[in-house]
């Protein structure tokens, strides 16, 4: 069952690029979370998407949101990817795609892991979902609109 707008985002704990464990609940009551699932480190589309999030990272931070990327790559791959492109946010390793399946961010065209972004508010409620395999920039711009809008109304 896919997560929908208005649902409480399922909690999870995964390993970050630095080897630490990160749980979604770590941010509850503190920050909104932009949780983006992407297919693979260091591929053209995923690099474009991740670098677009990097380039707007400070704006997300000002809006009270943390960015978290999730793929099935291991933490060592995430570390290389984050270092190569100066990614200032957390990348989590979802081996076996268990969290991806939990959220319903499953395979595009039945071949590739999906590219889906969830904007989760401070209370842990999903406010917005953007699902597009090829509109890399759209994930960033749509998530940013929601985060800035929520900051303005808080």
UniProtKB/TrEMBL annotation:
Listed InterPro entries: AhpC/TSA, Peroxiredoxin_AhpC-typ, Peroxiredoxin_BCP/PrxQ, Thioredoxin-like_sf, Thioredoxin_domain
Enzyme Commission no: 1.11.1.24
Catalytic activity line of the entry: a hydroperoxide + [thioredoxin]-dithiol = an alcohol + [thioredoxin]-disulfide + H2O
Keywords: Antioxidant, Disulfide bond, Oxidoreductase, Peroxidase, Redox-active center
CDD domains given in the database record: PRX_BCP (cd03017)
Superkingdom assignment: Bacteria
Pfam families the record matches: AhpC-TSA (PF00578)
UniProt key word Oxidoreductase: yes
Assembly and oligomerization: Monomer.
Family the UniProt entry places it in: Belongs to the peroxiredoxin family. BCP/PrxQ subfamily.
The protein, known as: thioredoxin-dependent peroxiredoxin
Organism per entry: Anabaena azotica FACHB-119
């Amino acid at each position: 069952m896919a997560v929908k707008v208005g649902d409480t985002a399922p909690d999870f704990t995964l390993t970050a690029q630095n080897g630490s464990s990160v749980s979604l609940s770590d941010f509850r009551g503190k920050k909104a979370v932009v949780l983006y699932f992407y297919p693979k480190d260091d591929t053209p589309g995923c690099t474009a998407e991740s670098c677009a999030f990097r380039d707007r990272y400070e704006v997300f931070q000002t809006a009270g949101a943390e960015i978290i990327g999730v793929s099935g790559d291991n933490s060592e791959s995430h570390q290389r990817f984050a270092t190569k492109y100066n990614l200032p946010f957390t990348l989590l390793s979802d081996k076996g795609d268990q969290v991806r399946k939990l959220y319903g961010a499953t395979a595009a065209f039945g071949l590739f892991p999906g590219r889906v972004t969830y904007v989760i508010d401070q209370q842990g409620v999903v406010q917005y979902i953007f699902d597009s395999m090829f509109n890399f920039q759209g994930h960033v711009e749509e998530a940013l609109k929601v985060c800035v809008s929520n900051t303005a109304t808080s």
